[in-house]
Specification:
alpha+beta; 5-stranded mixed beta sheet; STM4215-like; 5 strands
């Protein structure tokens, strides 16, 4: 399994199985259901594991990578309270937690930033949480 796939699987597993998060959201996705595909819309609030970037830092003797992983929070609740509460729970789930990255050793997971804003549709609240994940293998 490559760096990117292993990190994606580790983050997805952690969020999907973190009960404080699953108690306040409807689902964790890496591909949000669309009516054209399944006939169903995703139910708010939900979380999407979004874009990532991977930078390798191999040495002569070790393989390694730094990943920046973006997690999107989507809500239709009034105000930003729900988005921010979910962001806080995601922080607790990932920041400095020893996620299991199959095939690699975890160096660390660190929170980088978070933001929230009103989406372009005028009704959906959108939060973004960014984490840095460093692995070696």
């Amino acid at each position: 399994m490559g760096f990117s796939t292993a990190i994606q699987a580790a983050v997805f597993s952690r969020l999907k199985n973190y009960s404080p998060l699953t108690a306040i959201i409807k689902a964790v996705y890496d591909d949000v259901p669309q009516p054209a595909d399944s006939g169903k819309l995703a139910t708010f609030p939900y979380v999407v594991i979004g874009d990532d970037s991977i930078v390798e830092w191999d040495t002569d003797t070790e393989l390694g990578a730094d990943a920046t992983v973006t997690i999107h929070i989507w809500s239709r609740a009034k105000g930003r309270k729900e988005v921010k509460a979910i962001t806080d729970v995601i922080y607790n789930a990932l920041h400095r937690y020893d996620i299991i990255v199959t095939g690699y050793s975890l160096v660390g997971v660190d929170w980088v930033s978070a933001q929230s804003f009103l989406d372009a549709d005028g009704i959906t609240r959108h939060g973004i949480a960014v984490f840095r994940i460093t692995i070696e293998g």
